[in-house]
Amino acid sequence: MAQDALVLFATGSSIAVEYAATCRRLGLAIAAGVANREGPSYLPAGIALAKAEGIAPELLAYPCLCPLFTPANRTVAVREARALGFEFPRHLVDPTAIVADDFEIGGGSFVNAGVVVGAAASFGAHVVVNRSASIGHHVRLDDFVSIGPGAILAGHVRVGAGAMIGAGAIVLPGCRIGEGAVVGAGSIVTRDVDSGGRVMGTAARSVRSAGGRAVAR
Question: Is 137 a catalytic residue?
Answer without folding.
Answer: yes
